[in-house]
Specification:
mainly alpha, two-stranded antiparallel ribbon, 8 helices, disordered N terminus, COX15/CtaA_HemeA_synthase
Protein backbone atom coordinates (compact mmCIF):
# COMPACT_ATOMS: atom_id res chain seq x y z
CA UNK A 1 0.00 0.00 0.00
CA UNK A 2 1.35 3.42 -0.92
CA UNK A 3 1.09 6.34 1.48
CA UNK A 4 0.99 10.06 0.79
CA UNK A 5 2.28 12.35 3.53
CA UNK A 6 0.10 15.42 4.14
CA UNK A 7 1.05 18.39 6.29
CA UNK A 8 -1.46 20.49 8.19
CA UNK A 9 -0.49 22.98 10.87
CA UNK A 10 2.72 21.20 11.90
CA UNK A 11 1.08 17.77 11.95
CA UNK A 12 1.99 14.93 9.63
CA UNK A 13 -0.74 12.65 8.39
CA UNK A 14 -0.13 9.33 6.70
CA UNK A 15 -3.25 8.32 4.90
CA UNK A 16 -3.48 5.14 2.90
CA UNK A 17 -4.87 6.29 -0.43
CA UNK A 18 -6.32 2.91 -1.24
CA UNK A 19 -7.95 2.81 2.19
CA UNK A 20 -9.64 6.17 1.72
CA UNK A 21 -10.83 5.12 -1.72
CA UNK A 22 -12.11 1.78 -0.50
CA UNK A 23 -15.73 2.86 -0.14
CA UNK A 24 -15.22 5.21 2.79
CA UNK A 25 -15.70 8.36 0.73
CA UNK A 26 -18.97 7.14 -0.74
CA UNK A 27 -20.14 5.86 2.63
CA UNK A 28 -19.71 9.32 4.14
CA UNK A 29 -21.58 10.98 1.27
CA UNK A 30 -24.36 8.38 1.52
CA UNK A 31 -24.65 8.98 5.25
CA UNK A 32 -24.78 12.73 4.68
CA UNK A 33 -27.55 12.35 2.09
CA UNK A 34 -29.44 10.03 4.44
CA UNK A 35 -29.21 12.49 7.30
CA UNK A 36 -30.56 15.18 4.99
CA UNK A 37 -33.59 12.96 4.29
CA UNK A 38 -34.09 12.55 8.03
CA UNK A 39 -34.21 16.34 8.33
CA UNK A 40 -36.83 16.62 5.60
CA UNK A 41 -38.82 13.74 7.02
CA UNK A 42 -38.97 15.37 10.43
CA UNK A 43 -40.14 18.65 8.91
CA UNK A 44 -42.80 16.79 6.89
CA UNK A 45 -44.04 15.02 10.02
CA UNK A 46 -44.43 18.37 11.77
CA UNK A 47 -46.12 20.15 8.86
CA UNK A 48 -48.64 17.36 8.31
CA UNK A 49 -49.23 16.95 12.07
CA UNK A 50 -48.38 13.26 11.70
CA UNK A 51 -46.33 13.06 14.89
CA UNK A 52 -49.11 11.13 16.62
CA UNK A 53 -49.77 8.95 13.57
CA UNK A 54 -48.37 5.94 15.42
CA UNK A 55 -49.99 6.81 18.72
CA UNK A 56 -47.75 6.63 21.76
CA UNK A 57 -45.97 3.43 20.63
CA UNK A 58 -42.27 3.34 19.84
CA UNK A 59 -40.58 1.68 17.96
CA UNK A 60 -43.83 -0.04 16.91
CA UNK A 61 -46.59 1.93 15.21
CA UNK A 62 -49.94 1.54 16.96
CA UNK A 63 -48.70 -1.79 18.29
CA UNK A 64 -47.73 -3.15 14.85
CA UNK A 65 -44.59 -3.50 12.78
CA UNK A 66 -46.55 -2.45 9.68
CA UNK A 67 -49.11 0.26 10.50
CA UNK A 68 -52.57 0.83 9.09
CA UNK A 69 -52.57 2.69 5.79
CA UNK A 70 -53.55 6.10 7.05
CA UNK A 71 -51.69 9.16 5.81
CA UNK A 72 -50.47 10.19 9.26
CA UNK A 73 -49.27 6.73 10.26
CA UNK A 74 -47.45 6.14 6.97
CA UNK A 75 -45.66 9.51 7.12
CA UNK A 76 -44.57 8.93 10.71
CA UNK A 77 -43.65 5.28 10.11
CA UNK A 78 -41.63 6.02 6.95
CA UNK A 79 -39.75 8.70 8.87
CA UNK A 80 -38.89 6.11 11.52
CA UNK A 81 -37.75 3.59 8.90
CA UNK A 82 -35.50 6.12 7.16
CA UNK A 83 -34.08 7.21 10.52
CA UNK A 84 -33.36 3.57 11.40
CA UNK A 85 -31.57 2.91 8.10
CA UNK A 86 -29.52 6.10 8.46
CA UNK A 87 -28.69 5.06 12.01
CA UNK A 88 -27.13 1.86 10.66
CA UNK A 89 -25.17 3.89 8.08
CA UNK A 90 -23.93 6.15 10.88
CA UNK A 91 -22.64 3.22 12.93
CA UNK A 92 -20.85 1.70 9.92
CA UNK A 93 -19.33 5.06 8.97
CA UNK A 94 -18.11 5.76 12.51
CA UNK A 95 -16.50 2.32 12.75
CA UNK A 96 -14.77 2.75 9.39
CA UNK A 97 -13.46 6.21 10.24
CA UNK A 98 -12.13 5.26 13.66
CA UNK A 99 -10.52 2.07 12.35
CA UNK A 100 -9.05 3.38 9.08
CA UNK A 101 -8.28 7.01 9.84
CA UNK A 102 -6.74 6.58 13.27
CA UNK A 103 -4.42 9.58 12.94
CA UNK A 104 -7.00 11.88 11.35
CA UNK A 105 -8.20 13.74 14.44
CA UNK A 106 -10.72 15.97 12.69
CA UNK A 107 -12.41 13.06 10.90
CA UNK A 108 -12.67 11.12 14.16
CA UNK A 109 -14.12 14.17 15.89
CA UNK A 110 -16.80 14.63 13.22
CA UNK A 111 -17.62 10.91 13.35
CA UNK A 112 -18.04 11.10 17.13
CA UNK A 113 -20.27 14.14 16.67
CA UNK A 114 -22.43 12.28 14.16
CA UNK A 115 -22.93 9.36 16.53
CA UNK A 116 -23.68 11.60 19.52
CA UNK A 117 -26.20 13.85 17.75
CA UNK A 118 -27.87 10.89 16.01
CA UNK A 119 -28.42 9.08 19.30
CA UNK A 120 -29.63 12.30 20.91
CA UNK A 121 -32.13 13.07 18.17
CA UNK A 122 -33.40 9.47 18.25
CA UNK A 123 -33.90 9.72 22.01
CA UNK A 124 -35.73 13.04 21.69
CA UNK A 125 -37.90 11.61 18.92
CA UNK A 126 -38.82 8.57 21.02
CA UNK A 127 -39.64 10.74 24.04
CA UNK A 128 -41.80 13.01 21.87
CA UNK A 129 -43.86 9.98 20.82
CA UNK A 130 -44.20 8.30 24.22
CA UNK A 131 -44.69 11.44 26.31
CA UNK A 132 -46.12 14.82 25.42
CA UNK A 133 -43.35 17.39 25.05
CA UNK A 134 -43.49 21.17 25.01
CA UNK A 135 -43.07 23.02 21.72
CA UNK A 136 -39.73 24.36 22.98
CA UNK A 137 -38.38 20.81 23.40
CA UNK A 138 -39.83 19.64 20.08
CA UNK A 139 -38.16 22.55 18.29
CA UNK A 140 -34.84 21.44 19.76
CA UNK A 141 -35.28 18.09 18.00
CA UNK A 142 -34.87 19.77 14.60
CA UNK A 143 -31.83 21.67 15.84
CA UNK A 144 -30.14 18.46 16.95
CA UNK A 145 -30.93 16.87 13.59
CA UNK A 146 -29.32 19.85 11.87
CA UNK A 147 -26.14 19.41 13.93
CA UNK A 148 -26.08 15.72 12.98
CA UNK A 149 -26.42 16.62 9.30
CA UNK A 150 -23.68 19.26 9.51
CA UNK A 151 -21.35 16.74 11.16
CA UNK A 152 -21.92 14.24 8.35
CA UNK A 153 -21.31 16.96 5.78
CA UNK A 154 -18.04 18.02 7.44
CA UNK A 155 -16.91 14.40 7.60
CA UNK A 156 -17.72 13.81 3.92
CA UNK A 157 -15.79 16.92 2.87
CA UNK A 158 -12.84 15.97 5.11
CA UNK A 159 -12.56 12.48 3.60
CA UNK A 160 -12.89 13.88 0.09
CA UNK A 161 -10.11 16.39 0.73
CA UNK A 162 -7.80 13.64 2.00
CA UNK A 163 -7.97 11.93 -1.35
CA UNK A 164 -6.57 14.93 -3.22
CA UNK A 165 -2.84 14.59 -3.82
CA UNK A 166 -0.37 17.48 -3.91
CA UNK A 167 1.27 17.91 -7.32
CA UNK A 168 4.73 17.77 -5.79
CA UNK A 169 6.16 17.31 -2.34
CA UNK A 170 6.88 21.05 -2.23
CA UNK A 171 3.25 21.99 -2.88
CA UNK A 172 1.02 22.91 0.06
CA UNK A 173 -1.37 20.40 1.52
CA UNK A 174 -4.52 20.50 -0.65
CA UNK A 175 -6.56 20.27 2.54
CA UNK A 176 -5.14 23.65 3.54
CA UNK A 177 -4.78 25.24 0.12
CA UNK A 178 -3.45 28.67 -0.75
CA UNK A 179 -1.88 30.50 2.19
CA UNK A 180 -3.71 33.72 2.92
CA UNK A 181 -3.98 36.03 5.91
CA UNK A 182 -7.45 35.47 7.34
CA UNK A 183 -7.88 37.88 10.22
CA UNK A 184 -9.05 36.80 13.63
CA UNK A 185 -11.93 39.26 13.37
CA UNK A 186 -13.20 37.79 10.09
CA UNK A 187 -12.87 34.27 11.46
CA UNK A 188 -14.82 35.23 14.58
CA UNK A 189 -17.48 36.91 12.45
CA UNK A 190 -18.10 33.63 10.61
CA UNK A 191 -18.31 31.76 13.90
CA UNK A 192 -20.76 34.32 15.30
CA UNK A 193 -22.94 34.14 12.19
CA UNK A 194 -22.98 30.33 12.37
CA UNK A 195 -24.07 30.30 16.02
CA UNK A 196 -26.66 33.01 15.37
CA UNK A 197 -28.00 31.04 12.39
CA UNK A 198 -28.62 28.12 14.71
CA UNK A 199 -30.69 30.42 16.94
CA UNK A 200 -32.71 31.60 13.94
CA UNK A 201 -33.24 27.96 12.93
CA UNK A 202 -34.50 27.15 16.41
CA UNK A 203 -36.97 30.06 16.25
CA UNK A 204 -38.19 28.78 12.88
CA UNK A 205 -38.66 25.29 14.30
CA UNK A 206 -40.53 26.83 17.23
CA UNK A 207 -42.87 28.53 14.76
CA UNK A 208 -43.56 25.15 13.14
CA UNK A 209 -44.14 23.25 16.37
CA UNK A 210 -46.47 25.91 17.76
CA UNK A 211 -48.27 25.99 14.38
CA UNK A 212 -47.89 29.77 14.40
CA UNK A 213 -47.16 30.28 10.70
CA UNK A 214 -50.52 31.99 10.21
CA UNK A 215 -49.69 34.58 12.85
CA UNK A 216 -48.32 36.91 10.15
CA UNK A 217 -50.15 37.19 6.85
CA UNK A 218 -48.40 38.95 4.01
CA UNK A 219 -44.74 39.80 3.50
CA UNK A 220 -42.68 41.86 4.31
CA UNK A 221 -45.39 43.46 6.44
CA UNK A 222 -47.01 41.38 9.16
CA UNK A 223 -50.78 41.65 9.00
CA UNK A 224 -50.33 44.92 7.12
CA UNK A 225 -48.12 46.44 9.83
CA UNK A 226 -44.40 47.02 10.22
CA UNK A 227 -44.68 46.26 13.94
CA UNK A 228 -47.77 44.19 14.76
CA UNK A 229 -49.23 43.34 18.15
CA UNK A 230 -46.54 41.15 19.72
CA UNK A 231 -48.73 38.49 21.30
CA UNK A 232 -49.49 34.85 20.57
CA UNK A 233 -48.69 33.42 17.15
CA UNK A 234 -48.13 36.87 15.69
CA UNK A 235 -45.41 37.65 18.21
CA UNK A 236 -43.68 34.30 17.58
CA UNK A 237 -43.60 34.70 13.80
CA UNK A 238 -42.59 38.36 13.98
CA UNK A 239 -39.69 37.51 16.32
CA UNK A 240 -38.49 34.92 13.79
CA UNK A 241 -38.76 37.44 10.94
CA UNK A 242 -36.75 40.07 12.80
CA UNK A 243 -34.07 37.52 13.70
CA UNK A 244 -33.88 36.40 10.05
CA UNK A 245 -33.55 40.02 8.88
CA UNK A 246 -30.65 40.61 11.29
CA UNK A 247 -28.99 37.42 10.01
CA UNK A 248 -29.29 38.61 6.40
CA UNK A 249 -27.68 41.95 7.26
CA UNK A 250 -24.82 40.18 9.05
CA UNK A 251 -24.22 37.92 6.05
CA UNK A 252 -24.28 40.88 3.65
CA UNK A 253 -21.63 42.58 5.80
CA UNK A 254 -19.54 39.39 5.84
CA UNK A 255 -19.76 39.10 2.04
CA UNK A 256 -18.72 42.73 1.66
CA UNK A 257 -15.66 42.18 3.86
CA UNK A 258 -14.73 39.02 1.96
CA UNK A 259 -14.93 40.81 -1.37
CA UNK A 260 -13.04 43.91 -0.24
CA UNK A 261 -10.33 42.39 1.97
CA UNK A 262 -9.61 39.08 0.23
CA UNK A 263 -9.67 39.95 -3.45
CA UNK A 264 -7.92 37.33 -5.50
CA UNK A 265 -8.56 34.50 -3.03
CA UNK A 266 -11.24 32.59 -4.88
CA UNK A 267 -12.11 30.17 -2.09
CA UNK A 268 -12.91 32.88 0.48
CA UNK A 269 -14.93 34.89 -2.01
CA UNK A 270 -16.73 31.82 -3.35
CA UNK A 271 -17.77 30.69 0.13
CA UNK A 272 -19.00 34.19 0.96
CA UNK A 273 -20.98 34.34 -2.31
CA UNK A 274 -22.59 30.93 -1.72
CA UNK A 275 -23.54 31.88 1.85
CA UNK A 276 -25.05 35.18 0.66
CA UNK A 277 -26.96 33.47 -2.17
CA UNK A 278 -28.42 30.88 0.21
CA UNK A 279 -29.36 33.59 2.72
CA UNK A 280 -31.23 35.54 0.03
CA UNK A 281 -32.91 32.35 -1.16
CA UNK A 282 -33.91 31.59 2.42
CA UNK A 283 -35.58 34.98 2.75
CA UNK A 284 -37.45 34.48 -0.53
CA UNK A 285 -38.56 30.98 0.47
CA UNK A 286 -39.78 32.41 3.78
CA UNK A 287 -41.82 34.98 1.86
CA UNK A 288 -43.26 32.17 -0.25
CA UNK A 289 -44.25 30.33 2.93
CA UNK A 290 -46.19 33.43 4.02
CA UNK A 291 -47.98 33.75 0.69
CA UNK A 292 -49.00 30.06 0.52
CA UNK A 293 -50.44 29.64 4.02
CA UNK A 294 -53.96 29.45 2.63
CA UNK A 295 -53.09 26.67 0.15
CA UNK A 296 -52.30 23.57 2.20
CA UNK A 297 -50.68 21.51 -0.58
CA UNK A 298 -48.42 24.31 -1.80
CA UNK A 299 -47.74 25.38 1.79
CA UNK A 300 -46.21 21.99 2.60
CA UNK A 301 -43.95 22.22 -0.45
CA UNK A 302 -42.86 25.80 0.33
CA UNK A 303 -42.18 24.85 3.94
CA UNK A 304 -40.01 21.92 2.89
CA UNK A 305 -38.09 24.18 0.51
CA UNK A 306 -37.55 26.58 3.42
CA UNK A 307 -36.11 23.66 5.40
CA UNK A 308 -33.87 22.56 2.52
CA UNK A 309 -32.35 26.02 2.09
CA UNK A 310 -31.68 26.66 5.78
CA UNK A 311 -30.09 23.23 6.11
CA UNK A 312 -27.78 23.98 3.21
CA UNK A 313 -26.97 27.43 4.62
CA UNK A 314 -26.08 26.09 8.05
CA UNK A 315 -24.03 23.28 6.52
CA UNK A 316 -21.99 25.70 4.39
CA UNK A 317 -21.52 28.02 7.36
CA UNK A 318 -20.25 25.10 9.44
CA UNK A 319 -17.73 24.26 6.74
CA UNK A 320 -16.70 27.92 6.40
CA UNK A 321 -16.16 28.11 10.17
CA UNK A 322 -13.74 25.19 10.04
CA UNK A 323 -12.08 26.35 6.81
CA UNK A 324 -11.40 29.90 7.96
CA UNK A 325 -10.08 28.56 11.26
CA UNK A 326 -7.57 26.52 9.25
CA UNK A 327 -6.59 29.51 7.13
CA UNK A 328 -6.23 31.72 10.18
CA UNK A 329 -3.88 29.21 11.79
CA UNK A 330 -1.58 29.44 8.75
CA UNK A 331 -0.37 32.75 10.16
CA UNK A 332 1.19 31.04 13.17
Amino acid sequence: MKFVVYRRNDFNYKVGVSTVRNGLKWMTFLTSAGMFLVLLGGALVTKTKAGRGCGSDWPLCNGKFVPAYTLESMIEYNHRVVTGIVGILVVVTVVLVWSRLKKQTDAKLYAAGILFFTLLQAALGAMAVMWQQSSAVLALHFGISLLAFSSTLLLAVTVWRLERKPKTEADPDPAVGQAIRISKGFRNLIWLITVYTYIVVYLGAFVRHTFSSGGCTGWPLCNGQWIPELTGATGIVFMHRVAAAVLLLAIIWMAFLANSRYQGHKETQSLAFIILALALLQVMSGAWVSYTIGNEEVFIFSSLLHTVVISGLFGILSYASVRFWELHRLQK
